[in-house]
Amino acid sequence: MALTESQHKAINSYRSKHKAQVQYINRRSVAKNFILKDATEEDLEMLMGHIKERQNSLIQQKKGV
């Protein structure tokens, strides 16, 4: 289904006003697609290590340390 001119303007307006949120969603999508489609076993092992580090970091932030 093709978008109308006003829909394009609305989308562009949203994207310009919410750059951080749009970037976050794009990065999350890229990461998910890499994991699901392209990652090797070695990639997944490395990523799991990074994920655990990030989880620990977030836990420490919540504790106020």
What's the layout of helices and strands?
Elements: H1 5-17, H2 19-38, H3 41-63
Mean pLDDT: 97
In DSSP terms (H or I, runs of 4 or more residues), the helix count works out at 3
Task: Return Rg in Å.
Answer: 18 Å
Query: How would you characterize the largest beta sheet?
Result: none
Strand content: under 5%
Report the order of strands and helices: HHH
Number of domains: 1
* Total beta strands: 0
Summarize the amount of helix as a percent range: over 70%
Which term fits the overall shape?
flat
Structural class by sheet pairing and helices: mainly alpha
Descriptors for this entry?
65 residues, mainly alpha, 0% strand, flat
Description:
- With 65 residues, the protein is an all-alpha fold.
- The protein has three helices and no strands.
- It has one domain.
- Helices cover 86% and strands 0% of the residues.
- It starts with a helix and ends with a helix.
Outline of this structure?
The protein has 3 helices and no strands.
